[in-house]
UniProtKB/TrEMBL annotation:
InterPro entries: HyI-like, Sugar_Epim/Isomerase, Xyl_isomerase-like_sf, Xyl_isomerase-like_TIM-brl. SUPFAM superfamilies: Xylose isomerase-like (SSF51658). One of its GO terms (biological process) is glyoxylate metabolic process. Pfam families: AP_endonuc_2. Residues 10-200 form the Xylose isomerase-like TIM barrel domain. This is Putative hydroxypyruvate isomerase. Belongs to the hyi family. It is an enzyme of class 5 (isomerase). Catalyzes the reversible isomerization between hydroxypyruvate and 2-hydroxy-3-oxopropanoate (also termed tartronate semialdehyde).
């Protein structure tokens, strides 16, 4: 994430921070290798303070593409995947550079490396664009990781909000998604209480706690 005390939230698209980005990426690879994690979120970063987004968009994209090619080369040596996550600039972070799956898809196409993928957080996607069914279908070939949180409170999937997660989970299954679904939400209580929705979901699907079929037993 860069120097968070100085207001940074990622470095990959920030002009003039290329050396710091490469150093941070190497550290991330070191940690990922140690814990056996094959995917790394490559954070784009924020539009610099005092600058107009449109005025620096070209320079930031050029920096992003350069850093992503370096990332892809480094991660290919480790058999790892780099992930790009659009973060909404309407609520969460007004200055974040990468905001929509459309923007991320265009960047991925320009870089053209198979070990760079889209990290699609349905919370951010709903806030920026909605149309989740079509967006999941359209961008499914690019998706390397899914994250979830209810909108607008960013709490558990069964908390009051706009998203129908049982439907979305079934859609992901029908599309053939076999990866993890990251629970990128703030529990309303503690973590264990906040996982109650998952037990209820398993039971609604005829599964035991742990996702195994009762029929198979």
């Amino acid at each position: 994430p860069g120097d968070q005390e100085a207001g940074e939230l990622g470095l990959a698209a920030v002009p003039g921070r290329q050396a710091a980005f490469r150093q941070a990426l190497e550290a991330a690879v070191h940690y990922a290798r140690a814990v056996g994690c094959p995917r790394i979120h490559v954070m784009a970063g924020r539009v610099p303070l005092g600058t107009d987004r449109a005025a620096v968009a070209g320079e930031m994209e050029t920096t992003f593409l350069e850093n992503l090619r370096y990332t892809a080369d480094l991660l290919s040596q480790e058999d790892m995947i780099g992930l790009l996550e659009p973060i909404n600039n309407r609520i969460t972070d007004p200055r974040y550079y990468l905001n929509t799956p459309h923007q991320a898809a265009a960047i991925l196409e320009k870089v053209g490396r198979p070990n760079l993928k889209l990290q699609l957080d349905l919370f951010h996607c709903q806030i920026m664009d909605g149309n989740l069914t079509r967006n999941l279908e359209t961008y499914f070939p690019l998706i390397g990781h899914i994250q979830i949180a209810q909108v607008p409170g960013r709490h558990e999937p069964d908390s009051p909000g706009e998203l129908n997660f049982p439907y979305l989970f079934e859609l992901l299954e029908s599309l053939g998604y076999t990866g993890y679904v990251g629970c990128e939400y703030a529990p309303k209580g503690n973590t264990l209480e906040g996982l109650g929705w998952l037990r209820s979901y398993w039971e609604s699907r005829g599964l035991q706690h742990g996702g195994t079929s009762k029929a198979a037993k």
